């Protein structure tokens, strides 16, 4: 599992917990974690594409 996926899952759990308990800070923290996971995934995808281009035969 990638770091981005881990952050996304962690964020979803925090959002759900914040929603259930009415804790806005926890819910917002979850949203930040999800966004961070999305960025990490995009960076990883871009890095993979660049590596593929550089190692093309």
TrEMBL record:
Location of the region described as Disordered in the Swiss-Prot/TrEMBL record: 1-57
Basic and acidic residues bias locations: 7-57
Domain CsbD-like stretches: 3-52
Xref: Gene3D superfamilies: YjbJ
Family the entry assigns: Belongs to the UPF0337 (CsbD) family.
The protein, known as: CsbD family protein
Protein species of origin: Baekduia soli
């Amino acid at each position: 599992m990638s770091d981005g996926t881990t952050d996304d899952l962690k964020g979803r759990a925090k959002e759900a917990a914040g929603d259930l308990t009415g804790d806005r800070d926890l819910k917002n923290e979850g949203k930040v974690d999800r966004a961070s996971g999305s960025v990490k995934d995009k960076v990883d995808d871009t890095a993979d594409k660049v590596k593929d281009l550089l190692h093309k035969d």
